[in-house]
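All the exercises in this workshop are built on plain-text protein records. Sequence and backbone structure share a record, each on its own labelled line. The question running through the whole workshop is how a given chain folds. The record below serves as our worked example for the rest of this section.
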Amino acid sequence: MWRFFLFLFILSYIGNAYSKELVYFNKLGEVYIAEDTAIYEEPNTNSKVLLTLEILNYVYVIDKTNIVLPNRKVEEWYFIDARRRIDPRNSDSDILKGWIQRKYLAGKNDFKRQTKTKEMFIIAMYPDFSVYYYVSSNGNIKYFDNSDLSRAIRRGKLYFFKNIISLDFRAFLYYDDVGNLKSRWANEVEVITDKSKFPKWAFYEKPVRLKGYHSVKGDNVNLRENPGTDSQIIMQLKRGTRVKIIDGSSVEYKMIDSNGKERIGWWVRIDTGIKDKKGGTIKGWVVDLYLEEEWIEGKKK
């Protein structure tokens, strides 16, 4: 239910009108499909439908024409490369090309800078990596890609067009009919609005990753002697405890999160840094789903 109200909150600030000029995202003439629509053989809706494209697929513009209707209104039509083959089963078949109305296309200048929005943390999960975005209430963004070994924090702006949001023009997401944030390419998108669950770096002005260290992001997380829930509990770790991963395993762990979605993690061995009775430090196994990379506030100039 909260997603629906968040959706309504954001839509109240979104501009639905497209710009007079269609500005491409690159020299190839790339633009995005702004909502599910048909591609026609000729520039009119009575001609043959060649293909239906879903929102946020991207296409290449080849040409343009204006059609004057009997009521003297003018329709803008664009001839596009749909990036699909006429016969999907034949890699040698021609690329499908057809006509689409301007109102179903999203160019770069259609997106308007958003300076008032709900503060949120977005995780876009792709097959091999994830991207983490912190969106402030004034529409400024901090984000990083965990496939980037430097974990460099980048900054950007939030933009809107219709029910599409652009995160610094690096990622495009859209709200479905019930207010869930979706992606055309990510496997899953998670939106967090509870600020107590935001990672620490979201609140730092100049976040710097503390290499090799993680913090516990769950409450009373069990530290076990061996990887597995049948193993003896050594102690419970409080949220925010700083630990260091010293070993991994091939032991998988599945859990259902608070949104009813399945999460898959792996057991890892950590050093808690907490002294034991013999003068060493307490070590044990936890599931990596309960850990997040540790960040500190960088030096200010």
